[in-house]
């Protein structure tokens, strides 16, 4: 046996899943000659419960076997594959061929009788089953029963099911013990919404200055976020903001008296990473905000940005935690061509033990305030060993804590962060816009890396306003939201997306008048009342996600074909045996990824991916418009980017 899954590129780390995830257990197994084999996977839950699951041959010519299992217990599971000679299947095949041809019939009948009696002797089988096996053996030996009657026993579905459930095994081969870390559902599934609490409830005074919002005013926005169907509310850093080198509007180097600065420039005389910005309130106000969010069905995710403003208390107390340049100054952060003069990155090579102790103290502090989700800023610029240690230490104490990596980086470090412990990660989804790019990306996230990496498909961030959104108009916003909400088990939206904020700072891929450096005063209700908001569409997407468990899975995605270079087609399928309600669920997404046109073409669906035989009709319902059609393997579509650029179709009768 070779090539087992689930697994990670580095065997030191376990594969990962979340509670209720449909996990494919797959292995390559074969033997010499033509005798049949069977394969099991033996699972041992964290509480010690053991279960055995029979794998099915994929029949692809590569000797691959697979079974899907949805683990329901959180913790570290162990599993191993077991391959064996399937003595009944070997006999059944030979007997079916030979008895029908009149070849070696007596030998085949006696061989079968011996197998049935061997099975009947197993005390673990039910009494009724043992009697049926004994009677069948007698019939095979009965000279007065002709070969037609014997062939009926060979082909009897009851006996096939009996031996499938409890196979007669020989030549058992046991694979190595492997591990699967099963985490809580939110580690893999969720709709995220990001807002700056200082902007929620901020108001412009008569003198033109802006009074900051705070946790108390931001609570007023919670019902609207919840009503849109989001699960997680992510807050940028809420700590005191440095005054030295504070940035002004649009990342300018000079800040005016009323400019709030970037929340990522953490630390001032008012405190550091364990403090709340005085304008936002107190720790008690933050705890009240977390409780109010929970009452609305929202979990609060907090930013963990391991860096410091020049006036952070760390700079004085621990100058060794930073990089000192030859001229005696401390190096500030850079991400060319961007420069962050208001931020000092930490040098993890200096005093690693001291840094570890301080960061662990900070994380524990915010867990004590009710935070169980951390969005980590630029983790790929810190040592992997640090994250492996920190996440391991935190989750050993608090298994429900989730870490999201803001890792817009190359595939190798992105994947290494995942199997080092990060439950989720940002990805290059924001820059995958064409049909070909998206097909490749969706195959990658749903299969190649799904054993250990879970992308969170954010459509935008305070740092990212792609050219697709800048120039694609309102259709682009619909298209990207629909793709993110249906292709990924987790996706995210930064506030303002629903207002189609698409004007970039010249020469950049971020919004002009960026909220990182100033307050944003938005009229949410007015925009929605005027029909000028994407909020109803986002609400519908989240309603669809909650109603359809296939969309809350990372795996189960199949890319289909269309005859148009801008029409992307894929399905998400969850079979009945793995579905939480025991009912199969299938969604087909057909998207016009060209936001500037109307496209019409033929799409070609491999319906076997969701249990409908090729060539058979099936009914679909568009969950956005309510339209219904009967489809087959070939169907005509017409998608107007300026009306409804995406079909989200529920398949009736999938299995």
Explain what you see.
The chain is built from 16 helices and 33 strands. By secondary structure, it is an alpha+beta fold. Helix 11 links the parallel strand 20 (373-377) and strand 21. It is elongated and about 105 Å long. The protein starts with a strand and ends with a strand. The mean pLDDT is 96.
- Helical fraction equals 25-40%
Low-confidence stretches: none
Radius of gyration: 30 Å
Terminal-residue CA separation? 30 Å
Report the sheet-strand fraction.
15-25%
Helix/strand class: alpha+beta
Kindly report the spatial arrangement of strands forming the biggest sheet.
Answer: 22-21-20-15-14-11-24-23
Please outline the major beta sheet.
8 strands, parallel
Give the number of helices.
16
Number of strands: 33
Q: What value does the average pLDDT take?
A: 96
Q: Could you say which overall geometry the principal axes of the C-alpha atoms support?
A: elongated
Write the layout of secondary structure elements.
Blueprint: E1 2-5, E2 15-18, E3 23-28, E4 37-44, E5 50-54, E6 56-57, E7 64-69, E8 75-86, H1 87-101, H2 105-120, H3 127-141, H4 147-154, H5 157-165, E9 169-174, E10 178-183, E11 190-194, E12 203-204, E13 210-211, H6 215-218, H7 222-227, E14 232-235, H8 283-295, E15 299-304, E16 307-308, H9 313-317, E17 333-335, E18 338-340, E19 344-345, H10 352-368, E20 373-377, H11 384-397, E21 402-406, H12 411-419, E22 424-425, H13 435-448, E23 456-458, H14 467-487, E24 490-494, H15 524-529, H16 535-547, E25 557-559, E26 561-562, E27 567-574, E28 585-592, E29 598-604, E30 618-622, E31 628-631, E32 634-640, E33 646-652
Parallel strand pairs: 2-10, 11-14, 11-24, 14-15, 15-20, 20-21, 21-22, 23-24
Antiparallel strand pairs: 1-3, 3-7, 4-5, 4-8, 6-7, 8-9, 8-10, 12-13, 16-19, 17-18, 25-27, 26-29, 27-28, 28-33, 29-32, 30-31, 30-33
Helix pairs in contact: 1-2, 1-4, 2-3, 10-11, 14-16
